[in-house]
Amino acid sequence: MPLKMPFLILIFLHIHAVLAPDPEPLHDFCLPSTGHSSTFLPCKNSSLAKVEDFIFSGIKGPGKFKAGFSAIPVTSTAFPGLNTLGMSFVRADLDPGGINVPHFHPRATETAFVLDGKVYSGFVDSQNRVFAKVIEKGEVMVFPKGLVHFQMNVGKSRATILGSFNSQNPGSVKLPSAVFGSGIEGAVLEKAFGLNSKEIGKMRKRYGPQ
Ligand SMILES: *[C@@H]1O[C@H](CO)[C@@H](O)[C@H](O)[C@H]1NC(C)=O
Predict the structure, then answer these.
(1) What is the mean pLDDT of the chain?
(2) N or C: less crowded end of the chain, CB within 10 Å?
(3) d(CA 46, ligand 1 centre) in Å
(4) Which domains does the chain have, with CATH numbers?
């Protein structure tokens, strides 16, 4: 019994940390003192700030493509000027037929603005309802926080998307690699998906760490 209380407090703190939104900033901005941000670095003296600290130039073009998809996530790690401001963004590019695999962001809602192309775009709610449609250049879809979502380029040319997040560190959990590439015991996967060990082996090879 005496052990229970601290345990419950720990659970509460954990739940609180997981559910809490990014904190309200206490300063106009907080450039991390060591240049690159992690979650809790102190701010450097604000009189040292320059305009360049608030400009990010790394998404003028697409990132490296892999299987027809490229993404440049811009969190406060890549762009320290975002530190404590509760936002971040991503540039994603898809070749024709390319997909952004089903994934979710545990700490952020996303708005995905199609800068170019035609994208079949959707999410799944907690009742397994799919909300999906082809959207095109100039349209925006919102992916509610924590819900699984996906995109596929259904046009004839490359598609480009700007995703914006209401967290400086939204996190991204990709379902194929979280399930088959994480080292979950094979027996669990066999039962969960009704596959045999050979089929599970094939999925593991495909989605495992590379
Ligand atoms: C910040 O830098 C300015 C200019 O160099 C200096 O006058 C000020 O004392 C510094 N503030 C702190 C809190 O170190």
Answers:
(1) 89
(2) N
(3) 8
(4) 66-171 (2.60.120.10), 178-207 (no CATH)
Please choose from 31, 33, 47 the residue to mutate so as to test ligand 1's pocket, defined by most ligand atoms within 8 A of CB.
47
- pLDDT level of residue 1 (50, 70, 90 thresholds): very low
Q: Are 172 and 121 in contact (CB under 8 A)?
A: no
Ligand 1 proximity of 42 Cβ (cutoff 6 Å): no
The reply to whether ligand 1 has any atom less than 6 angstroms from the CB of 128 is: no
The residue whose CA is least distant from atom 13 of ligand 1 is 45
Q: Is 47 in the pocket of ligand 1 (CB under 6 A)?
A: yes
pTM of the model: 0.84
Mean pLDDT, to the nearest integer, of 162-184? 95
Banded pLDDT at 15 (limits 50, 70, 90):
very low
